[in-house]
Amino acid sequence: MMKSSGNIDDNQFRHEVEADLRDAIEHGILVSILARKLSEELGKDEQFCYDMSVAGLLHDIGKMKLSRYLYWRRDDSLEIEEMKYVRLHSKLSYEILKDKGYSDNVLDAIHYHHENYDGSGYPNNLKDEDIPEGARILRACDVFAALVTDRPYRTAFDMNTAIELMIEEVRNFDLAIFMAFQNMVNYNDFTDIVYNGLFENEDTIDEYIKLCLEEYDEER
Ligand SMILES: [Fe+2]
Fold it and tell me: What is the whole-number distance in angstroms between the Cα of residue 91 and the centre of ligand 1?
């Protein structure tokens, strides 16, 4: 699936793949940090907090199988046909990871991280408490992380604007979890957490890079 095409030569292709991979890893790291912190804010035990940091790191790994639909684009337009494929990625992430020894908390959070609290999400249109708690945690962290990061087609929103945009879409979120997220944003060290990162899980990061490259080579 991931053949170079059009006008780009193989070197440029490889460069684009690596740049996309780096963006994907940085997003994973940020979601991981946020999901761990938010779980702590919610009073969860250490195992659950750790599981959320793993789920945050790995949640979008299924996108590696969809790269030609997602990457090398410099705007945010997606054709309807493409959207259909993009919406497969959370299930693909789950399928890539399901036999690799991760806990149910990790796998459920990843599988359902695009479910919305009002039932409008995917893949299963789960609603309210039917959405695993870890997935509800990941949902808030994922959206925030995307908003405060530069994209090829727009610059990052500042944190206050990101929260305002999330409030406009609050039906997507578990309100208790979103309130906890807002509390967390107000802590003094939060900017540090978002912009400098706390690399507590380097082994997991290495593992993620390895998995991504394996997926990449399989697809070539
Ligand atoms: Fe995702």
Answer: 10
What are the φ/ψ torsions at residue 190 (nearest 5 degrees)? -65, -40
What's the CA-to-centroid distance between 35 and ligand 1, angstroms? 14
Please give the Cα distance from 83 to 72 (Å, whole number): 16
Q: What's the predicted TM-score (pTM) here?
A: 0.83
For the stretch 1-60, pLDDT in tens is 344 444 556 667 666 766 777 788 889 989 999 999 999 999 999 999 999 999 999 999
Share of the chain above pLDDT 70, in %: 75
What torsion, rounded to 10 degrees, do the Cα atoms 78, 145, 71, 81 define? Answer: -30
In whole angstroms, what separates CA 134 from the centre of its chain?
13
Determine the distance separating the centroid of ligand 1 and the alpha carbon of 195, expressed in angstroms.
21
Q: How far apart are CA 35 and CA 55, in angstroms?
A: 8
Give the contacts of 140 (CB within 8 A, at least 6 positions apart): 38, 166, 173, 174, 177, 178, 181
* Helix or strand (DSSP H, E) at 31: helix 10-41
158 Cα: distance to centroid of ligand 1 (angstroms): 21
Structural domains present in the chain: 10-219 (1.10.3210.10)
Quick one: how many helices (H) and strands (E) in the chain? 11, 0
Residues 117-156: pLDDT tens digits?
Answer: 999 999 999 999 999 999 999 999 999 999 998 887 889 9
CA of 139 to the centre of ligand 1 (A): 9
